[in-house]
Amino acid sequence: MTPPLLSIENLSVTLPVRGTHRTVIHRVDLTVPAGTAVGLVGESGSGKSMTARAILRLLPRGAAVTGEVRLDGRDITRAGAAELRRLRSRDVAMVFQDPRAHINPVRTIGDFLTEALITARGVRPRAAEATVTALLHDVGIPDAARRMRQRPPELSGGLLQRVMIAAALAGEPRLLVADEPTTALDVTTQSEVMAIIEEARAERGLAMLFITHDLPLAAAVCDRIAVMYAGTVAEELPAAHLHGRARHPYTRALLASRPDPTDTTQRLRAIPGRPLSAFEAPPGCPFAARCAHPQEICHAERPAPRAAEDSLVACHFPEAPGAAVLSGDRSDTHD
Ligand SMILES: Nc1ncnc2c1ncn2[C@@H]1O[C@H](COP(=O)(O)OP(=O)(O)OP(=O)(O)O)[C@@H](O)[C@H]1O
Ligand SMILES: [Mg+2]
Question: Is 109 exposed, middle or buried (0-12, 13-18, 19+ CB in 10 A)?
Answer without folding.
Answer: buried
